Give the backbone structure.
Amino acid sequence: MRRSRRARTTSGCSSTTPAAGDTFTVALNNGPANQKDWVSLSQTGASDTGYLTWDYLNGIRTAPPAGVSATTIELSAPMVPGTYNVRMFANNGWAKLATSGSITVQPRASLTTLRQTLGLPAVADTTGFSNIGVAVIDSGIAPSADFSGRISGFYDFTNGQNGVAVAPYDDYGHGTHIAGLIAASGAVSNNQVQGVAPGVRLVGLKVLDGTGQGNTSDVIAALQYVTAHKAELNVQIVNMSLGHPIYAEAADDPLVQAVQQANAAGLIVIVSAGNYGRNPDNGVVGYTGITSPCNAPAAICVGAADTRNTVGRSDDVVASYSSRGPSWYDGYAKPDLIAPGHKLPATTTATSYLFTHLPASQAFSANGQPTLALSGSSMSAAVVSGVAALALDAHNRNGLAQQQPMTSNLMRGILEYSAIKLPGSDYLTQGAGEVNANGALTLAASIDTSQAVGSSWLTQSVAPASTIGSVNEPWGQNILWGETVLGGNVLYSNNIVWGENILWGENITWGESAVMASNIVWGENIVWGELTEDNAVWGTRAADDVIWGTMFGNNIVWGENTNITWGNNIVWGENVIWGENIVWGETVVWSDTLTWGQTLDVTGDQTWQEHSAPDEGPNVNVNVVNGLAPAVPVDNTLVLDPTSPMGGSF
């Protein structure tokens, strides 16, 4: 085996070190030129028949019209780090002509553009950050230098502990990742992976156990605890990156009602929309996948965007797995907005369940510290919670802390109005658009909440655009209010709706500053008909079957189902657990032994739908799969030469 000329060596055993998912080049020399010579990729030490993938010498699985003696083809490195070999075989058989040296697949680097794509500095300055607290209702928060001195409370609601105060921990890892996206200081990674609001305090409420399972009753109890003790906990925001399918109208859903009560008490509750935007059988994108409690009228419901890990917004898309609206039974227009949520690296511990069970999601910072890159609306909700914390801080820093506190309605209005729209996406897919931290902070710092209803409350002129990277991006300047999409200067004057105790979507008088931009038209049924331009028109229900309409020729929802979930699936913590799970009232009861479907691998990404969304769209780098570049430039070329002294060795 010889190194390639690109590596500037002439002989010896070659190795290459692509990152997981990268492409690497195989140069084939001095072959016998059979039409059906082929190459395989195998784990080092595996038998020839135990290959992972293969191609003919033209790089595809259709043989070329004629054999070649020399060529180059590209292969993708496996997503699981380890050592592998490329092997060359003759004429569709098992006569091995050459074996490459060891290919060492490295874990992916923790590369993130999250803060920059939000319009924030790459590294935050937390000097003077005001006293903002975020409650994270999840699987816990593991102690970390990223949260040093800022976990101000921790309460365990799992295993019948009913909220006992204990030392922070997270055996599952989901909550730590969420907390990291919200508030990681970057101390662990030398600021390479930093949260959105690294000056915020955290209160952890553990409701999911070490395998991500939990009871709805525990989630309700945790939220009620925060609501009752919000003053002593000193929290303003609640993050709920979890949910379950909608089984009842919002008014009859105990979890939704707990969210409504938290909102009435003055808390800003931010919830993940769910990951049911795509039919798992055929990949078709559909609607009505919103999970509870994102259907709570008071919840700020967040879907997921895929930024392709670039700063600019021009290549951003709504992640196909992100749940679309409307909500079941009530037909609420959800999500409210979307936020980056695809393959986001954040704080982890190497012993957590998710880190050990998702090797393809493991990533490492330049100083060698582990992170976990996860995907889903869970991550998006955490991003928005961080932005909301920054907005509260911006309001306080501008000398407005002594004024009326910002309400949940006002926060939602700020987030929606300053959001940046993605072209070609409707309101029930992206809500008001993709979150824009720069714009939200600009608005929050400019609004004097002490001004009388009906009067202007901006303390300074606000230009409705934000610079993201080098591009000046206009705000969407829309607010989704019930059936109506509002535009104009709707947020530049105080209105009764921005105060307390106004249910989002109620009929109110907006005044001259609000302009009706368009309508979302709802009927009385919960079944989709056709979606035309900006109007969503309901269809019909026939007998016991749901008859689905069409959207531009494609099915909106798949088959004659009466729920967005397929089969006997119960969702908790944004993870899909397959098998005969039973729901009793408001509590999810799990069987002692989980029965996994035949197509699922408990050790792989596909088991956890929250974290396993396949890559979408073109690569942002022609030499890199998944849009993630290697940490440093590497030469990813191997040479296979049957005439080499090592050409036929194993």
Observations:
- Residues 5-106+630-640 form a domain with the Immunoglobulin-like fold (CATH 2.60.40).
- The mean pLDDT is 77.
- The CA atoms of residues 358 and 604 lie 6 Å apart.
- The radius of gyration is 26 Å.
